[in-house]
Design goal:
Largest sheet of chain A: 2 strands, antiparallel
Number of strands of chain A: 2
Order of helices and strands of chain A: HHHHHEHHHHEHHH
Number of helices of chain A: 12
Shape of chain A: globular
Strand content of chain A: under 5%
Structural class of chain B: mainly alpha
Number of helices of chain B: 11
Radius of gyration of chain B: 20 Å
Largest interface: A-B, 43 and 44 residues
Strand order of the largest sheet of chain B: 1-2
Radius of gyration of chain A: 19 Å
Order of helices and strands of chain B: HHHHEEHHHHHHH
Strand order of the largest sheet of chain A: 1-2
Oligomer: heterodimer
Shape of chain B: globular
């Protein structure tokens, strides 16, 4: 456990030191790449709460990236640039959408749950495409980033970078606390043996639904960050391959581990970036890599770290 | 209401429905028997469309091209089963979803490497380009009518094979207890490969028939795949009858919604509002329908007995 904590601490230090290092070697691009990685890490951390700890295989997590992103974009479209308001709407809006989708889908199990979460996300995707007002298929630009009354300036790449880092750590801490609370015990119990958790008096549904909503809200925050990061919002935020990628990040990093999703996000996006620099057909390589990692790399990256299963 | 327009759109809905059924039947068979969630089913649809386009160009004959395209998809399906999917049967659904998601990325990109990303348009032979008069005053494209016919015939054949033949008996037995079937001396691995190839060929058939109607392009399979999921959720998973009913409902609702929702809304709200809300609502209609069905019958309309 000591060694593991040390390694994870070193990772945080590296992330803290990355921007000056990147500037020093004259590659400011890496700041942007890492910021993107950390935003997706927040999405993956949120998915891990329901997928890793709760056993709910949601194939629609990108929906909340979209809801969060469009919340920021639509408010900005009407001239409301107050970041507190935008992000609050992003988080609450995602929570509401997660509640509606979850209320129907959490009742179902297994393959049904997978297909339903996927289908509802696709519905939102088509909604984004068909609303011409907000750019339809092409999406819309975010001309002014979220304003935080001089507290943080998102137009400053470094300030934005450190804000994302702080939020990522906060989300990881939050999920850690949730999972190890009494509430989290019920979630994990329902995953390992639903019949038994019912027998001792816990109907899993309200707990799982609450976890589903928390995860959605957290991913909504990632969506608000992503909109500011790319200065652009499009239905592609909610593309079903996005959901698949977030899911793969969780599995690649290691399900039900604190650091796994962030490691997975880092590994997948950096590999994608490297391959994309090498060939435009990088997906023809990523696809088989994905299959191989599912078949042979069951414990994920976090499983390579020393220490217990749960970090 | 213009009755002739309604009739034509209903036929279009039927045509879309039978294509959804061909996809859903294969997917639900594979799930029911091997307990495998195959996201790459849409890729086989795409492979069928592309192989047929290539084979028609190569042979210069449409029927021959279709035959080669079908056989090709069957072979590709069996190869995928033997190489990648066979090891996944014992895994949980999460692993299956991810691995077949990887297959989709691979196939989409492979197709883009071979044929490019631009959409291909296939030309039909002249005898399929005409129109027929089904009811007086209404003409309908021969090709779409043929698609409906082929879909219905294949559906009937499928019913016959599954309920009346020895292969169908094995399929049903394998679905209810695979260990027992294996213990009785049936080569269950071979059976799985055959069933998978069978499902792949059905997807390929849907894809090659879709080619001349919609665009043939990388990623075409996923658009229909997610609609097929809606079909299966509505119909009840693992049930061919459910797949048929679900497919026809979804095909009709989607087609009629896109055609008539906007003018219909125009009666109730202002025309500009209907102009904006109509297409948005039409594209969400089948998903809303799915939500309603799930709220009333969580296991779908025709849940398979297990």
């Amino acid at each position: 456990m000591r060694a593991r904590t040390l390694i994870l601490g070193a990772c945080v230090l590296l992330l803290l030191a990355a921007p000056p290092l990147a500037t020093w070697i004259g590659q400011p691009y890496y700041i942007e790449l890492l910021r993107r990685v950390m935003i997706f890490a927040i999405a993956a951390v949120s998915l891990n709460l329901i997928l890793g700890y709760g056993g709910l295989v949601s194939f629609g997590h990108a929906a909340y990236l979209g809801v969060g992103g469009y919340s920021v974009g639509i408010l900005a479209f009407y001239g409301i640039h107050n970041g507190w308001l935008q992000w609050a709407v992003a988080i609450l809006g995602s929570a509401l959408v997660a509640f509606l989708i979850g209320a129907i889908s959490v009742r179902t199990r297994g393959i049904y749950f997978i297909m339903i979460t996927l289908a509802f996300t696709q519905m939102l995707y088509y909604l984004g495409i068909s609303v011409e007002e907000y750019g339809g298929d092409d999406g819309m630009r975010l001309k002014v980033k979220s304003q935080f009354s001089g507290l943080v300036d998102l137009a400053d790449p470094l300030a934005f970078y450190y804000l994302v880092l702080v939020l990522l750590l906060a989300c990881m801490y939050l999920v850690h606390r949730v999972v190890h609370s009494r509430f989290g015990m019920v979630i994990r119990a329902a995953k390992s043996n639903e019949a038994r958790s019912r027998a001792i008096g816990f109907s899993p549904y309200p707990y799982q639904l609450a976890a589903f909503v928390i995860a959605g809200a957290m991913c909504g925050l990632a969506g608000a960050l992503l909109a500011n990061h790319t200065a652009y919002i499009a239905p592609a935020f909610m593309d079903w391959t996005r959901s698949g990628e977030i899911m793969f990040m969780v599995i690649l990093g290691g399900m039900a581990t604190a650091a796994g999703p962030a490691l997975g996000a880092f590994a997948l996006l950096v590999v994608e970036d490297l391959l994309a620099g090498w060939t435009q057909h990088w997906q023809v390589i990523v696809g088989p890599l994905l299959i191989l990692s599912v078949l042979f790399f069951k414990r994920g990256l976090a499983g390579l770290l020393p220490g217990g299963k749960d970090g | 209401v213009n009755l002739i327009l309604l009739f034509e759109q209903a036929l279009n809905g039927l045509q879309f429905g039978v294509m959804l059924f061909l996809m859903a039947a294969g997917l639900t068979l594979v799930f029911g028997i091997m307990n495998l969630v195959n996201l790459a089913h849409g890729s086989l649809y795409m492979v069928g469309a592309y192989l047929t386009v290539a084979a028609v160009q190569w042979t210069g004959s449409y029927p021959l091209g279709v035959l080669l395209g079908l056989l090709g998809t069957l072979v590709v399906g069996m190869l995928v089963e033997v190489i990648a999917l066979r090891t996944l049967y014992e895994r949980d659904h999460l692993d299956q979803v991810l691995a077949t998601f990887g297959l989709i990325l691979f196939f989409n990109e492979l197709i883009a490497i071979i044929w490019g990303r631009a959409a291909l348009y296939t030309s039909l032979p002249s005898y399929l380009q005409g129109f027929i008069e089904i009811i007086p005053g209404s003409i309908y494209p021969v090709y779409r009518a043929l698609v409906i016919g082929v879909g219905l015939v294949v559906g009937a054949l499928l019913w016959y094979v599954v309920t009346r033949t020895r292969l169908g008996m094995l399929i049903r037995a394998g679905a209810s207890n695979r260990t027992m079937v294996a213990a009785l001396g049936i080569n269950i691995r071979l059976l799985y490969t055959v069933v998978f190839g069978f499902g792949a060929a059905l997807a390929g058939l849907a894809g090659l028939m879709a080619g001349p109607i919609y665009a043939v392009q990388p990623g075409m399979g996923e658009l229909i795949l997610i609609q097929v999921f809606v079909v299966i959720v509505i119909g009840g998973i693992g049930s061919i009858r459910g797949a048929l009913v679900g497919a026809l409902i979804v095909g009709m609702v989607d087609t009629l919604g896109r055609a008539f929702l906007k003018p219909l809304l125009g009666h109730f709200i202002s025309p500009p509002a209907a102009e904006a809300a109509g297409p948005a609502l039409a594209s969400m209609l089948i998903y809303l329908l799915m939500a309603v069905v799930l709220a009333v019958r969580p296991a779908g309309l025709f849940p398979a007995k297990s």
